[in-house]
Write a structure and sequence with these properties.
- This protein is an alpha/beta fold and 232 residues long.
- It contains seven helices and seven strands.
- Helix 2 (24-34) runs parallel beside helix 3, helix 5 (129-148) packs across helix 6 (150-161) and helix 6 (150-161) packs across helix 7.
- The longest helix has 20 residues, at 129-148.
- Bound molecules: S-adenosylmethionine.
Length: 232
């Protein structure tokens, strides 16, 4: 709903087209601009409730005989929407900050990892701008850690900081990510100084990293998406 209590354009469109939330239009715009999901993609959707991105991701896989899979994780229990989703979509209720990486990998087809990782996770907004941005950056860094693994992340973070390895990214050699080479990663963040640092960490890891503020973003929101394409 819009601020005045009247449904806005994207809310009405979501209702008309059978999407469970207006956020569907954010992923639809990303698909149109970047074609992140293709027939046969294996998609991990972090923070998937209520399920609009699950719907768009499944639609983007095309007909069932193209194969592919969509796995959603949310701290809330999510029922797979009946519209626009099929048996290729499954959801798991878990805290992404705590679930072991191997457990997430085990959810991918043949445990081979994912070709697309989407994070639309956001913290419960307190209204304290710096606190909300810091929590959002933590969720974003966790998505990046799941994607590329702490080993690679610590190297890239050290290059950015030009300092000793950060304790946050201490790694073991076997700590690999679950995003396949060539894969794509989307991270939602709330604007702050931290987001610049996250994009600096991502740039050398991917062929391309760009920012997008989708048209469906509410004007009062500070959210912005980092679109990372083609894991090296
Ligand atoms: C903006 S909503 C996602 C909307 C979703 N992309 C859609 O289109 O339906 C953000 C979600 O992130 C989830 N979330 C926040 N922190 C999380 C965490 N640590 N683990 C799992 N989910 C989390 C919230 O429960 C919430 O459902």
């Amino acid at each position: 709903m819009s601020g005045a209590g009247t449904p806005d354009f994207f809310y009405r469109e979501a209702q008309r087209l059978g999407y469970v939330a207006r956020s569907a239009f954010k992923l639809l715009q990303m698909q149109k601009q970047y074609t992140l999901i293709s027939p046969g993609s294996t998609v991990l959707d972090l923070g998937c409730a209520p399920g609009a991105w699950l719907q768009v991701a499944c639609q983007s896989l095309g007909p069932k005989n193209n194969g592919g899979a969509v796995v959603g994780i949310d701290i809330k229990k999510v029922k797979v929407p009946s519209m626009h989703c099929d048996a290729r979509v499954q959801t798991v209720c878990a805290d992404v900050m705590n679930i072991p990486k191997d457990q997430v990998r085990a959810l991918s087809p043949k445990e081979k990892g994912f070709s697309v990782i989407l994070s639309d996770m956001c913290p419960l907004v307190s209204g304290i701008t710096t606190r909300d941005a810091a929590l959002s950056a933590e969720l974003g860094m966790r998505a990046l850690d799941l994607a590329v693994g702490k080993a690679i992340l610590s190297q890239s973070a050290d290059c950015v900081k030009e300092s000793a390895p950060s304790d946050d990214y201490n790694s073991s050699p076997g700590d690999n990510g679950i995003l396949k080479p060539g894969g794509h990663l989307v991270i939602k963040l709330l604007e702050s100084e931290d987001v610049k640092e996250i994009s600096q960490i991502c740039k050398p890891l991917f062929k391309k990293a760009s920012w997008l503020r989708p048209k469906a973003t509410r004007s009062c929101s500070r959210e912005i998406y980092l679109i990372c394409q083609g894991l090296r």
